[in-house]
Amino acid sequence: MEKIILYVDDAVYASEQFAELAPDANSVVARHWVLVACAPRMTHRISKWVSHSARENWRAKWFSKVQAQLLPLLERNGGEVTAVLAKGPLADLTVQLKREHGASHVVDARRPKIGVDLEPVTPDQTPAHQSGWAFPGAVMGMGALLVLANELAE
After folding, report:
1. At 139, is the pLDDT very low, low, confident or very high (cuts 50, 70, 90)?
2. Is residue 81 a part of any domain in this protein?
3. Between 12 and 44, whose confidence is greater?
4. 81 to each of 30, 54, 130, how far by Cα in Å?
5. CATH code of residue 26
Protein backbone atom coordinates (compact mmCIF):
# COMPACT_ATOMS: atom_id res chain seq x y z
CA MET A 1 0.00 0.00 0.00
CA GLU A 2 1.41 3.35 -1.06
CA LYS A 3 1.60 5.88 1.79
CA ILE A 4 1.41 9.60 1.03
CA ILE A 5 1.63 12.59 3.37
CA LEU A 6 -0.71 15.35 2.14
CA TYR A 7 -0.42 18.90 3.55
CA VAL A 8 -3.62 20.97 3.28
CA ASP A 9 -4.73 24.41 4.48
CA ASP A 10 -7.78 24.93 2.25
CA ALA A 11 -10.07 22.01 1.36
CA VAL A 12 -11.39 23.50 -1.90
CA TYR A 13 -7.91 24.32 -3.22
CA ALA A 14 -6.64 20.89 -2.13
CA SER A 15 -9.52 19.20 -3.97
CA GLU A 16 -8.57 21.03 -7.16
CA GLN A 17 -4.91 20.11 -6.71
CA PHE A 18 -5.84 16.51 -5.96
CA ALA A 19 -7.75 16.27 -9.24
CA GLU A 20 -4.65 17.51 -11.10
CA LEU A 21 -2.09 15.51 -9.11
CA ALA A 22 -3.94 12.22 -9.10
CA PRO A 23 -5.57 11.74 -12.50
CA ASP A 24 -5.18 8.01 -11.89
CA ALA A 25 -7.30 8.26 -8.72
CA ASN A 26 -9.66 5.75 -10.29
CA SER A 27 -6.90 3.15 -10.34
CA VAL A 28 -7.08 0.05 -8.20
CA VAL A 29 -3.92 0.90 -6.21
CA ALA A 30 -4.87 1.34 -2.56
CA ARG A 31 -3.33 4.34 -0.87
CA HIS A 32 -2.91 5.32 2.74
CA TRP A 33 -3.19 9.11 3.05
CA VAL A 34 -1.76 10.93 6.04
CA LEU A 35 -3.83 14.12 5.86
CA VAL A 36 -2.02 16.95 7.64
CA ALA A 37 -4.28 19.96 8.12
CA CYS A 38 -2.51 23.29 8.65
CA ALA A 39 -5.01 25.63 10.32
CA PRO A 40 -4.82 29.31 9.38
CA ARG A 41 -2.91 31.46 11.82
CA MET A 42 -4.72 33.98 13.95
CA THR A 43 -3.37 37.48 13.96
CA HIS A 44 -1.70 38.89 17.04
CA ARG A 45 -4.59 41.29 17.57
CA ILE A 46 -7.18 38.50 17.63
CA SER A 47 -5.12 36.29 19.90
CA LYS A 48 -4.99 39.03 22.55
CA TRP A 49 -8.77 38.88 22.94
CA VAL A 50 -9.42 35.15 22.53
CA SER A 51 -8.51 32.58 25.16
CA HIS A 52 -6.29 29.61 24.42
CA SER A 53 -9.18 27.16 24.83
CA ALA A 54 -11.35 29.19 22.42
CA ARG A 55 -8.53 29.11 19.85
CA GLU A 56 -8.14 25.35 20.27
CA ASN A 57 -11.91 24.87 19.89
CA TRP A 58 -11.86 26.93 16.70
CA ARG A 59 -8.95 24.86 15.35
CA ALA A 60 -10.82 21.63 16.16
CA LYS A 61 -13.96 22.82 14.36
CA TRP A 62 -11.90 23.95 11.36
CA PHE A 63 -10.13 20.57 11.33
CA SER A 64 -13.38 18.60 11.36
CA LYS A 65 -14.76 20.76 8.53
CA VAL A 66 -11.67 20.10 6.38
CA GLN A 67 -11.91 16.37 7.11
CA ALA A 68 -15.58 16.30 6.13
CA GLN A 69 -14.74 17.88 2.78
CA LEU A 70 -11.67 15.79 1.94
CA LEU A 71 -12.29 12.33 3.41
CA PRO A 72 -14.79 11.21 0.73
CA LEU A 73 -12.30 12.20 -1.96
CA LEU A 74 -9.36 10.41 -0.34
CA GLU A 75 -11.28 7.28 0.69
CA ARG A 76 -12.35 6.50 -2.87
CA ASN A 77 -11.26 3.08 -4.12
CA GLY A 78 -10.46 1.77 -0.66
CA GLY A 79 -8.07 4.49 0.42
CA GLU A 80 -7.28 4.81 4.10
CA VAL A 81 -6.89 8.18 5.80
CA THR A 82 -5.08 9.16 8.97
CA ALA A 83 -5.86 12.78 9.85
CA VAL A 84 -3.40 14.96 11.78
CA LEU A 85 -3.72 18.59 12.88
CA ALA A 86 -0.36 20.29 12.38
CA LYS A 87 1.28 21.94 15.36
CA GLY A 88 4.83 23.21 15.36
CA PRO A 89 7.37 23.22 12.51
CA LEU A 90 6.14 21.29 9.46
CA ALA A 91 9.57 19.90 8.54
CA ASP A 92 9.85 18.25 11.96
CA LEU A 93 6.32 16.90 11.63
CA THR A 94 7.18 15.40 8.23
CA VAL A 95 10.20 13.60 9.66
CA GLN A 96 8.08 12.26 12.53
CA LEU A 97 5.27 11.10 10.19
CA LYS A 98 7.73 9.42 7.82
CA ARG A 99 9.20 7.56 10.77
CA GLU A 100 5.76 6.50 12.08
CA HIS A 101 4.07 5.62 8.79
CA GLY A 102 6.96 4.93 6.43
CA ALA A 103 5.48 7.29 3.85
CA SER A 104 7.36 7.57 0.59
CA HIS A 105 5.78 10.72 -0.87
CA VAL A 106 5.05 14.16 0.54
CA VAL A 107 2.52 16.35 -1.32
CA ASP A 108 2.16 20.03 -0.45
CA ALA A 109 -1.36 21.08 -1.48
CA ARG A 110 -1.45 24.28 0.55
CA ARG A 111 -2.83 27.39 -1.12
CA PRO A 112 -0.05 29.85 -2.04
CA LYS A 113 -0.51 33.30 -0.57
CA ILE A 114 0.64 36.52 -2.21
CA GLY A 115 3.57 38.09 -0.42
CA VAL A 116 3.92 35.23 2.08
CA ASP A 117 6.52 32.48 1.89
CA LEU A 118 5.01 29.15 2.93
CA GLU A 119 6.91 27.16 5.52
CA PRO A 120 8.82 24.24 3.94
CA VAL A 121 7.30 20.82 4.66
CA THR A 122 10.52 18.80 4.33
CA PRO A 123 13.93 19.59 5.81
CA ASP A 124 15.62 19.66 2.38
CA GLN A 125 12.96 21.84 0.73
CA THR A 126 13.94 25.44 0.13
CA PRO A 127 11.10 27.92 0.58
CA ALA A 128 9.80 29.31 -2.69
CA HIS A 129 10.39 33.05 -2.64
CA GLN A 130 7.14 34.46 -3.85
CA SER A 131 7.57 38.10 -4.75
CA GLY A 132 3.93 38.71 -5.51
CA TRP A 133 4.11 42.37 -4.51
CA ALA A 134 7.58 43.21 -5.85
CA PHE A 135 6.55 44.00 -9.42
CA PRO A 136 3.32 45.90 -8.62
CA GLY A 137 5.20 47.85 -5.93
CA ALA A 138 7.87 48.82 -8.44
CA VAL A 139 5.22 49.88 -10.95
CA MET A 140 3.43 51.97 -8.33
CA GLY A 141 6.69 53.59 -7.29
CA MET A 142 7.52 54.40 -10.88
CA GLY A 143 4.02 55.83 -11.39
CA ALA A 144 4.39 58.03 -8.30
CA LEU A 145 7.76 59.24 -9.57
CA LEU A 146 6.26 60.13 -12.96
CA VAL A 147 3.37 62.03 -11.31
CA LEU A 148 5.84 63.93 -9.12
CA ALA A 149 8.04 64.75 -12.12
CA ASN A 150 4.96 65.96 -14.03
CA GLU A 151 3.89 68.18 -11.11
CA LEU A 152 7.36 69.69 -10.83
CA ALA A 153 7.53 70.35 -14.59
CA GLU A 154 4.36 72.45 -14.51
Report:
1. low
2. yes
3. 12
4. 11, 27, 31
5. 3.40.50
